[in-house]
Design goal:
The longest helix has 23 residues. The chain is mainly alpha-helical. About 65% of the residues lie in helices and about 5% in strands.
Length: about 120
């Protein structure tokens, strides 16, 4: 992951990526605000910055879609999430705890450790 990315930025891009997987290529900022339990103005400020950085396209009325650059980061974050959750579940961690923990771990795990977990799961 790029060093300048914060946990929140990765979460926003992951959310948009998952929405794409579900067939929604355009998401409204109000939907993001609701999902993250943030004010609409906080999401507007964050998405303005993501638009400036080239991670999303932001149209009038809060319509948001990923750029290729944003999609790449969203996919990478989502892949980490799903692999880490699978790993935690295989260890016997409960569904709810594994979901909470992988959301935290996905942002701080080293590439080396993550690759070793992937290798372990593929055996």
């Amino acid at each position: 992951m790029e060093k300048i990315l914060t946990e929140s930025v990765e979460d926003y891009l992951e959310f948009l990526y998952v929405k794409e997987l579900e067939g929604e290529t355009i998401v409204k900022s109000l939907e993001m605000a609701s999902y993250f339990s943030f004010s609409r103005s906080a999401i507007t400020k964050a998405t303005d910055k993501l638009n400036e950085l080239g991670y999303i396209f932001k149209e009038k009325y809060g319509k948001i879609s990923l750029t290729e650059k944003g999609r790449e980061i969203g996919k990478k974050t989502y892949d980490r999430h799903t692999i880490l959750k699978t790993f935690l579940l295989k260890l016997g961690v409960s569904e709810s705890t594994s979901e909470l923990d992988c959301c935290k771990i996905e942002h701080v795990i080293s590439e080396e450790t993550f690759e070793k977990i992937k290798e372990y799961l593929s055996k």
